[in-house]
């Protein structure tokens, strides 16, 4: 993801997280100021159709955000983007984790398909009474 991608990313962000989307400034900050941030876009015919953010700290990778354009969901792009990023992180990281809402069945389905399992609960992560499930996957074999 580059600074020039942010407006297109922000469109998808608003479709995807209407009650708590990141601001454009949050994306600019991640790209320009966060030394731990690694941000990716997926494009189709030169159009941004999805994005994913990672923080990599030493050998741990944490997904900060991921979304695919609403009209293109269910076509396999989300899985493809996650697989790409898992391979990227595997070069330096032992583990990858993320947070997901219990009711986000589509996202949980993709994560489970890719080997993520439950690691615990973060209470009130999305706001009062809105807990997050933490999921994680080992990227390297023992
Ligand atoms: C999560 C997300 C990125 C997945 O992207 P995608 O391109 O739709 O994912 P894929 O097409 O690769 O896979 C979707 C899978 O979910 C399944 N699915 C769709 N709706 C589902 C539901 N309600 N319950 C269970 N599974 C569901 C599909 O059948 C498909 O699985 P399959 O390949 O085994 O058939 C996308 O749904 C999205 O952008 N959601 C909004 C933002 C979001 O919630 N991000 C995650 C925050 S943790």
Automatic annotation (TrEMBL):
Domain N-acetyltransferase as annotated: residue spans: 1-140
Keyword set includes Transferase: yes
Major localization class: cytoplasm
SUPFAM superfamilies: Acyl-CoA N-acyltransferases (Nat)
Catalytic class of the enzyme: transferase
Reactions mediated catalytically: N-terminal L-alanyl-[ribosomal protein bS18] + acetyl-CoA = N-terminal N(alpha)-acetyl-L-alanyl-[ribosomal protein bS18] + CoA + H(+)
Keywords: Acyltransferase, Cytoplasm, Ribonucleoprotein, Ribosomal protein, Transferase
NCBIfam families: rimI
Protein name, entry field: [Ribosomal protein bS18]-alanine N-acetyltransferase
Native source species: Macrococcus equipercicus
């Amino acid at each position: 993801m580059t600074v020039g991608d942010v407006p297109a990313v922000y469109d998808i962000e608003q479709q995807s997280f209407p009650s708590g989307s990141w601001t454009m400034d949050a994306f600019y900050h991640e790209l320009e100021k966060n030394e731990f941030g690694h941000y990716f876009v997926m494009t189709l015919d030169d159009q941004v159709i999805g994005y994913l953010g990672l923080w990599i700290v030493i050998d741990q990778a944490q997904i900060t955000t991921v979304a695919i354009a609403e009209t293109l969901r269910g076509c396999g792009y989300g899985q493809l983007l996650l697989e790409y990023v898992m391979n990227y992180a595997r070069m330096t990281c032992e583990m990858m984790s993320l947070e997901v809402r219990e009711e986000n069945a589509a996202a949980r389905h993709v994560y489970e398909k890719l080997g993520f399992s439950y690691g615990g609960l973060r209470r009130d992560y999305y706001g009062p009474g809105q807990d997050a499930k933490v999921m994680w996957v080992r990227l390297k074999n023992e």
